[in-house]
Structure formats: structure tokens, C-alpha cells
UniProtKB/TrEMBL annotation:
Domain Purple acid phosphatase N-terminal: from-to ranges: 72-159
Domain Calcineurin-like phosphoesterase positions: 174-372
TM region(s), chain numbering: none
Catalytic activity line of the entry: a phosphate monoester + H2O = an alcohol + phosphate
Signal peptide span: 1-40
Source taxonomy: Eukaryota, Viridiplantae, Streptophyta, Embryophyta, Tracheophyta
Top-level division of the source organism's lineage: Eukaryota
Statement: the UniProt record of this protein carries the keyword Transmembrane helix: no
GO MF term list: acid phosphatase activity; metal ion binding
Cofactor entry: Zn(2+); Fe cation
InterPro entries to which the protein is assigned, alphabetical: Calcineurin-like_PHP, Metallo-depent_PP-like, MPP_PAP, PAPs-like, PAPs_C, PAPs_N, Purple_acid_Pase-like_N
Name of the protein in question: Purple acid phosphatase
Entry similarity comment: Belongs to the metallophosphoesterase superfamily. Purple acid phosphatase family.
Length: 484
């Protein structure tokens, strides 16, 4: 298979294509019987739910406080180091501090080990948090089931997790993708669909906007607690990798709350120091055959800023022989053809897109827009203010951009799209759902998007992604007729 297959710029009227490219285009058109997806994407006309999304009431089953005095609640885990041999376990005790110790043991061992954590509380306007505990368990073995316990005396609660396999280029691994979840009946539906999807996700890549507490009067932080209890049924058993969204900022000068990210910073820790980052909002981890870079749309990223400096230092460290799949998470999408949040990601795109193309990022996942969208492999890096070259062009070194902010929060669906659909946009639909990224080996990953209206196994959008370093062949739907 040729690696030099070139596509013409989408919006160019005069261009030359190689003979091979021409044959390929003709083939593609023939296969698709006249409908040419190379020249434009699909806007699904699927009729989705139109009722308003409302938050589940405070007395809902999913917000149930575990029984017993000072019982640990809102238990959640995330990767605790750079390589997947540590786990951060977090929880809240409401009545008193209690213990910050986690007892843990591997499935084949009876000896309980102990890890000591720390706790803190915070105030937000007239809300005082419970005791928030964070404990990092170190030196875990790869690919091992561990049980763990938090709490003391009569209120011990037991959970388990499975550590990722050792890092390596052909290690299969399955990620779930959820964004903008919130805590409505739709959010519960999304989480249930993720849990019951026959493709079992082992770790969630969460693209930001967690509780939507800030949509309640005075940013009612009780809604941070309810979100913690709601999501526990998944995140106590498998790590969710956190990205900060705009609903994590909680900047409310009218309430005297002027320090951005206060609740998020206290409640959701990330292993940022392990990747040389100086803030919890941008960092990286390796997991199986993937290298995940998390960026913050709401921290400075211009030239000379800490995040910018970090990313420039970070990208050359990615060794594709070790972790072939380079994936970036952020909240605000760069390629978004929905009217909602249109062009909000543009400033970060201008700063970082040349790096993504240079380092051949495979996939970029974002949230923020409450709909689903998948792009073609395009870049828009030629523009220099004077040359007028400001249209995205097909680029086999560019990532596919996926917006998966369709978790189902209180703000409802973003149904108004820009028209006509831009040619870089391959598939878009305003429905709630989640996605699965099933990495098979260094060359192939199977991706599927699942909408909440369908039964659990239905794939509303799916395709194979080919790795940009090991198999940089066109993987668009158009090119599928010519399977490599
Ligand atoms: C906080 O203040 C609001 C009014 O601004 C009030 O409704 C609420 O009950 C107060 N909450 C607490 C915990 O005092
Ligand atoms: C949330 O979903 C779970 C699992 O499907 C279900 O048991 C529960 O009753 C739902 N709760 C609400 C409030 O919809
Ligand atoms: C990249 O990873 C491979 C496989 O683990 C290793 O052999 C090689 O030395 C690494 N390269 C660098 C520059 O660290
Ligand atoms: C990688 O996975 C794909 C999809 O399962 C498979 O077709 C291909 O043969 C695999 N490659 C190798 C080298 O095993
Ligand atoms: Fe958002």
C-alpha cells in the first residue's frame, strides 16, 4: 500500500492528482454508487429525543448515600503515575475526617497492604464540603485484579479494579469515551449504555464538564456530591481520565469565589507531576499501547505559557515504538460545525495544530458541544495572515477530530448545525451517546459511537482507524473500499 496517496485540497478548484489517486477516487465513487463521501459528510437525520433534559431529583436512587455512620461515598479512581502502576483512590466522608487509609490486595494474595492518603475540605460561598480523601497506591503489578477497601469499623466499603497490561506497541486495550455527562435522566442513560455495551471499556477517557453544579443557584456544590455518588458505580471500578471543562471553572466573583477550578481541584486529582506538568489540568499518561495527552482549554496556552512550554517539551518524548497510539483529549473542539460553541476552539487550534500534524497525532477527542461529530483527517496550518490559505485540507498526517460532548447534561442537545456541512466534517448528529475505542495492535483500532436511543450493541457510527506512525494509510470511509 502506498503511503504517498495524496488528496487534493478540498476547496481547491484546480489541482493535480497522482494517477494512483485518480484511480482510487474513481474506484471510490464506483463503490459508493455515485454518492461521494470524499466530498462531504453526513448529517444524520435521526430523530432524537426532544424533551428537555432535567437533573435527576436529589432523592433519586443514583444519589443514594451509602448506609452507616460516616460511610465513604463518591469513590473514584484514576491513573496515579505515568505508566499505569499506580492508582489514585478518592472518596468523601461526610460526618468526620475518619481514615485516609486504603487497604488493598491482589486477587491471588490474602495479605492486605496499606496506603496512606490525605484529606482536605473546602468552602464555596456558603457550602462546606465533606472530608475529601485522596490516596495514591504505588507499585501495583500490571494486568492484575486488586480489591481495595476504604472506611473504618462498621462502614468499610470494598471495591476492585484491574491494572492495565504492561506498556507495549501491540497491547490491545479498550477505552470508553464520555463527555459533558452531568446528572440528568439522560446522563444515567448514557452511563447505563456504556456499562452494558458488549464492547467493554476498561478505562474512560473523560473529555470534561462533569457535574454541571454551576448551573444550579450559587453553583450549589451539593450537585458535585450527587455527581460523585451517581458515577461511583463505574469510576470506583475503572479509572476515568479527567479533562477540565468550562463547568469545572466555577469562577463566581458575585459569590466571592474568584479562584478558578476550586471544587474540581479539590475533588478530582490527576497524576500531572509524573509527566512534568505544573498544574493538574494538563498532563499525560501511557496506558497499554496508547499515549494520552490531556490539554486544558481553560488554562493559558499561548507562547511562553506553562501549558505551551509543557506541550512543546512533551511531544518529542512520545516513542511510537513503545506507544504507537497518540491521543489528545481537550474540552473545546477545534473542528466543530455545530452552531453551539462555534469557533470557541479556534485560538488553541492556531497555537497547537502545527504540532499535532508534525507529531502525527492519531485522534483528538473533545466535548463541550452537546452532539456528536467526527471529522476527516484534515489540517488547516498553511494560513499566515497574508496568503489567504485558510481552508482545511485533507492531510494524512493530521488527526481525526471527534466531538463526544453528548453525555446528556442539563443544557440539552445542540441541534443547530452550521449549513452547509463543511467538507471536513464526516459525520454529525445531535443525539446523546458515548463511544468506544478498541485498540487492537500498533496499526488498527476499531472505533464505534453508540447513541442512547438504540439498544446497547448498535453502532451508529463506526470505522477502523489506522495508526499514523505505523500504517498511515487513508482510513476515511471513502477509502474503505481499498482496505489495506
Ligand atoms: C446558601 O444560601 C442560599 C441563598 O443564597 C440558601 O438558599 C441556601 O440554603 C444556603 N445554603 C446553606 C448551606 O446555608
Ligand atoms: C439509573 O439507571 C440505573 C441503571 O439502568 C437504574 O437502575 C436507575 O433506576 C436509574 N435511575 C434513575 C433516577 O433514572
Ligand atoms: C523507544 O521504545 C523502544 C521500544 O520500547 C525502545 O527499544 C527504544 O529504545 C525507545 N527509544 C528511545 C529513543 O527511547
Ligand atoms: C492488527 O489488527 C488487525 C485488526 O484486528 C488485523 O487485521 C491485523 O492483522 C493485525 N496486525 C497484526 C500485525 O497482527
Ligand atoms: Fe463545556
Amino acid at each position: 500500500m502506498s503511503f504517498s496517496l495524496r488528496f487534493p485540497p478540498i476547496a481547491s478548484s484546480s489541482y493535480s492528482v497522482s494517477m494512483r489517486g485518480l484511480v482510487f477516487l474513481v474506484l471510490c465513487i464506483l463503490i459508493l454508487n455515485g454518492s461521494d463521501p470524499c466530498s462531504g459528510g453526513k448529517t444524520s437525520s435521526f430523530t432524537r429525543k426532544v424533551e428537555k433534559s432535567v437533573d435527576m431529583p436529589l432523592d433519586s436512587d443514583v444519589f443514594h448515600v451509602p448506609p452507616g455512620y460516616n460511610a465513604p461515598q463518591q469513590v473514584h479512581i484514576t491513573q496515579g503515575d505515568h505508566v499505569g502502576m499506580a492508582m489514585i483512590v478518592s472518596w468523601v466522608t461526610q460526618d468526620e475526617a475518619g481514615s485516609s487509609v486504603v487497604l488493598y490486595w491482589s486477587e491471588d494474595s490474602k495479605h492486605k497492604k496499606e496506603a496512606k492518603g490525605k484529606h482536605s475540605t473546602y468552602q464555596f460561598y456558603n457550602y462546606t464540603s465533606g472530608y475529601i480523601h485522596h490516596c495514591t497506591i504505588l507499585n501495583l503489578k500490571h494486568d492484575t485484579k486488586y480489591y481495595y477497601e476504604v472506611g473504618i469499623d462498621h462502614t468499610i466499603r470494598k471495591f476492585w479494579f484491574i491494572t492495565p497490561p504492561e506498556i507495549g506497541p501491540d497491547i490491545p486495550y479498550t477505552f470508553g469515551l464520555i463527555g459533558d455527562l452531568g446528572q440528568t435522566f439522560d446522563s444515567n442513560n448514557t452511563l447505563t449504555h456504556y456499562e452494558l455495551n458488549p464492547h467493554k471499556g476498561k478505562t474512560v477517557l473523560y473529555v470534561g464538564d462533569l457535574s454541571y453544579a454551576d448551573n444550579h443557584p450559587d453553583h450549589d456544590n451539593v450537585r458535585w456530591d450527587t455527581w460523585g455518588r451517581f458515577t461511583e458505580r463505574s469510576v470506583a471500578y475503572q479509572p476515568w481520565i479527567w479533562t477540565a471543562g468550562n463547568h469545572e471553572i466555577d469562577f463566581a466573583p458575585e459569590l466571592g469565589e474568584i479562584k478558578p477550578f476550586k471544587p474540581f481541584r479539590h475533588r478530582y486529582h490527576t497524576p500531572f507531576k509524573a509527566s512534568g506538568s505544573t498544574e493538574p489540568f494538563w498532563y499525560s499518561i501511557k496506558r497499554a499501547s496508547a499515549y494520552i495527552i490531556v490539554l486544558s482549554s481553560y488554562s493559558a496556552y499561548g507562547t511562553y505559557t506553562p501549558q505551551n512550554q509543557w506541550l512543546i517539551d512533551e511531544l518529542p518524548k512520545v516513542n511510537r515504538s513503545e506507544t504507537p497510539w497518540l491521543i489528545v483529549l481537550m474540552h473545546s473542539p477545534w473542528y466543530n460545525s455545530n452552531s453551539y460553541h462555534y469557533m470557541e476552539g479556534e485560538t488553541m487550534r492556531v497555537m497547537f495544530e502545527p504540532l499535532f500534524v508534525q507529531y502525527k497525532v492519531d485522534l483528538v477527542f473533545a466535548g463541550h458541544v452537546h452532539a456528536y461529530e467526527r471529522s476527516e483527517r484534515v489540517s488547516n496550518v498553511a494560513y499566515n495572515i497574508a496568503n489567504g490559505m485558510c481552508t482545511p485540507v485533507r492531510d494524512q498526517s493530521a488527526p481525526v477530530y471527534i466531538t463526544i460532548g453528548d453525555g446528556g447534561n442539563i443544557e440539552g442537545l445542540a441541534i443547530e448545525m452550521t449549513e452547509p456541512q463543511p467538507r471536513y466534517s464526516a459525520h454529525r448528529e445531535a443525539s446523546f451517546g458515548h463511544a468506544i475505542l478498541d485498540i487492537k495492535n500498533r496499526t488498527h483500532a476499531y472505533y464505534s459511537w453508540h447513541r442512547n436511543q438504540d439498544s446497547f450493541a448498535v453502532e451508529a457510527d463506526s470505522l477502523w482507524f489506522y495508526n499514523r506512525f505505523w500504517h498511515p494509510v487513508d482510513d476515511s470511509i471513502c477509502a474503505r473500499g481499498e482496505e489495506a
